[in-house]
């Protein structure tokens, strides 16, 4: 899926990426996929995720490879005057700055918000941090798992009889990166009217809390602290994984019509007429009885085949797949969700634009790979 960057929606936008690890790099990879010229600025020791393996390829961990394509990489030591001078030169030509330093770090290096706004009035400055710069937790470092714990996500994730559990992927880091992309897009859009950049403030703490639907909405209405329900939904039934003769199937029945179609296809249509199951509220109240009633008819099917039959009938269902199965699925490949370039394989861009599509033009860069290409014009000016 290699195309010219000029075809992307963000063609002509230059991004200086000072971020490391996940939230920031994930954000800037999305910007790069959509045509932005992303300059990844690493410290002399490199982005620490280069060492977060195995697995490794050519000395670089898969973790780094997953969030750093479509970028040009340079190294700068921002603790030195020459490093800071080069950063100022880069920012003079930039549209966006993305960083996830602990609040106050850039200030100590002479790049406070006030300085940046005065020196580069059109610059969109996006900071990703744990808690923001002020407030009771302001300035403290943030980490995905800690944000999941503090933000309430772990309290509602896991089996009912088990303890709080971390979501099995860095969901807070990633949704913070997504929100950073949204904020940057908003700011660039507004800049077209005002001619001015602005500060985009995104925190792991805020983004973790923003994910608490429907648990927060339920709490605001009934005052009851949500509890863990495993794969079961707190407001809908059946909306959970259930066993079949082969594999587990997730049923996501959102209304009474879908439930009637489900039990019809399972050859137990009478269940839709029983008072205990006729409405979602009744099914939710009688969830355990419903599981028992569905167990025998489900045991006559295999999850994958049944899920396909149900989907074709408009009943939301899915067989539980592992990562290998997902990445090999024909529809995954049809949608371009696996991309390859020069030996690199990665996940494809999920946002498809009709006229200005995303593209994968550069594999993840080697450490400092583009130093001469990026910095030579600035060094020549000295």
The counted number of beta strands is: 13
Write out the strand line-up for the largest beta sheet, numbering strands in chain order.
Answer: 5-2-1-6-7-8
Number of continuous helical runs: 16
- Gyration radius (Cα, Å) is 25 Å
What is the distance, rounded to the nearest whole angstrom, between the alpha carbons of the first and last residues? 39 Å
Secondary-structure content class: alpha/beta
Q: What portion of the residues fall into strands of 2 or more residues?
A: 5-15%
The CATH homologous superfamily of the largest domain corresponds to Crotonobetainyl-coa:carnitine coa-transferase, domain 1
Largest sheet: 6 strands, parallel
Could you state the oligomeric state of the chains shown?
single chain
CATH class of the largest domain: Alpha Beta
Domain unit count? 2
Low-confidence stretches: none
Return the average pLDDT rounded to an integer. 95
The general outline is elongated
Organism: Methylobacterium nodulans (strain LMG 21967 / CNCM I-2342 / ORS 2060)
Protein name: L-carnitine dehydratase/bile acid-inducible protein F
GO molecular function: CoA-transferase activity
Keywords: Transferase
